[in-house]
Amino acid sequence: MFCPNCGEKLESLNQKFCSSCGSEIQSTPTPEAPITPQPIAVKPQVPSPASSVPVYDSKTIKAGRIGPQSRLGFSFALVAIAFFIAGLIFGGTLILRILMPVYIYPYLPGGPGLWIIAFILHIIGFVFGIISRVTSSKAGKDEPDNGLQKVGSVFGVFGIILNLIPLVLIPIMIAVANRPYYDPFM
Fold it and tell me: What's the domain range around 27?
């Protein structure tokens, strides 16, 4: 019995589908006809076309000059890092006063009031880090691909992280510093 579509010989009489082409086989078996040898025509083999995957929504890379949004994003990132350093200086003076004896550096200002100033500086730095990140992402969409946009984006993330850590630690330090001293041995 042979497949009516491709002519391939079927393996069994009860077969419902052709193993070569997959077409459905009718249930009535056909008598096998004697095979007469036919001359085989040699066809030149054509290479099969390579399977290709279509590309959708491919992003075109625009090469060009640095745009204003890239510069702005980088500038905001530097300002965020500068506010982190300023907040670190204001927040660190109390720690330096605790660590250094009074006779080494007696005029060092101190108190939790400086931590509040440092907290405000870190909030401002955190906001500038977010603005830098938003501006850098807009620059990535609207402007040609450039290194300053990428550096501004990375520095913006650094500004966000560096200013976020003291925003968590300063309230804890203020709460610990304002706690009355408790001595269990008195």
Answer: 1-31
